[in-house]
Amino acid sequence: MTAAPNLGAVTAVRGSVVDVVFAGPLPPIYSVLHAGPKHEIIIEVLAQRDARHVRGIALTPTQGLARGMVVTDTGGPLKAPVGKAILSRMFDVFGNPIDRQPAPAEVQWRSVHRPPPPLERRSTKSEVFETGIKVIDILVPLERGGKAGLFGGAGVGKTVLLTEMIHNMIGHQQGVSIFCGIGERCREGEELYREMKAAGVLPNMVMVFGQMNEPPGSRFRVGHTALTMAEYFRDDEHRDVLLLIDNIFRFIQAGMEVSGLLGQMPSRLGYQPTMGTELSGLEERIANTDTGAITSIQAVYVPADDFTDPAAVHTFAHLSASIVLSRKRASEGLFPAIDPLQSSSKMATPGIVGERHYALAQEIRRTLAQYGELKDIIAMLGLEQLSPEDRRVVVRARLLERFLTQPFFATEQFTGLTGKLVSLPDALDGCERILHDEYKDYPERSLYMIGAISEAKGKPQGAPAATPAQSEGKTGAAVAAQSAAKPKSKDHPDHQTENQPKPAPEPKTKTDPKPAPPTPVPVAPAPPLPAVTPPGQPPVAKDAHAA
User: Fold this and answer.
1) Which residue among the candidates 52, 185, 197, 327 is catalytic per the annotation?
2) pTM to 2 decimal places
3) Active-site residue, selected from the candidate residues 44, 143, 184, 444
4) Residue 204, pLDDT score
């Protein structure tokens, strides 16, 4: 005999916050309640106010909800579908399919609120996870089974870089890929689904979306739904999982909205006081175990490009690699706009990547750092005022900046450039040859937006070294040759050439050093001046011509 449902009634509705009164036992925290004529309004209990009242957050729009409406306690938490049948499908936070196909059969439903794996089950093995993107594989290597973050403000290329990583890695990924969209644009989810289907990689992929049109409660829980699916493939299927999250800041932002709606006192900059606990509860579930690994790549929006923002600071602590995107490099056309000096990775050690890789990465950072220090001198005094060694550093740095750019498969339709996938040995070889000055006589344009370094040989070497959005003008070997061939000023002592006759020197006399008064230029030689007649004597007779 089925027990009678636990029923309650709505007592207050304030936005997404709903207060419910129960005559019987109160539902536990995280219990799901249903309301509305068709049970279409879903509420999650977050607080028990007293012996009869609970307060919850609505995971769906509360349109049509009113005081006095009947509320049904489901007796359990929010659940997500797991199983092989969810592959190649797209779901919302409740596990409902949103790809216009029937619901999958033969699936299990598990609670989205699960503890992180205990320490004795975690793995400590470190292995590099190649992406095919030069600047990441060389300077910020990712860890297989680790967490990497793409930090940047609005419009610097976080989603594009994440999409490119999906394209490059999902074909080589032997396990399952799960994409979780939190609070981002709906069109990006549709475009990603279409692109993955066209690429033929959808059979090993699952997508979960709670985009920006959803209520804050839905955006706050969609990450837990995706992690529940990832944990099934790691623990039950013993497969490696690639988890891509766009954007983890929207998860924190949704928690801030929920906290404000519940009336909690905000902390610094308006964030919820429990932000650290909520973020840890999500991030710590992403871990390597003895049965499999979850490798996570997360886009992190940085408000107003302020990396001291509490959301960015708390996220930094959970990551093994931090990839910082620079607005300045994006404005110069250097894509991917990754700042090599601010980005870091715990994998960039000699014991993991090898001595040669580590030494090259350190030399690249040192060269780019020296170039950054010399930019002010170049802007004020010019390149000619640098020492020969500093000029060579500038040439290497500018060539490295151009070589570390790369055309993406995700942007082919916008740029017209074919995407490139570069292996780590080819990327290391190119940087090493640039540091050894093998390409000092090449124009900078020949290394811009190429794949391997061998592609630079097919470009014209006589072309001007024009690069995107140059701020200091042309530099490098091409600039040195250009300045050497530039004609010198007229005041320069070496200005005269063999084909240019020297002008005759102006006549100068020792007796009359002062300049003569200005007189009209005569056409013919002037006649001699007449003799002066002494006073008292008759003037000398003149002929008619002398008058």
Assistant:
1) 185
2) 0.79
3) 184
4) 87
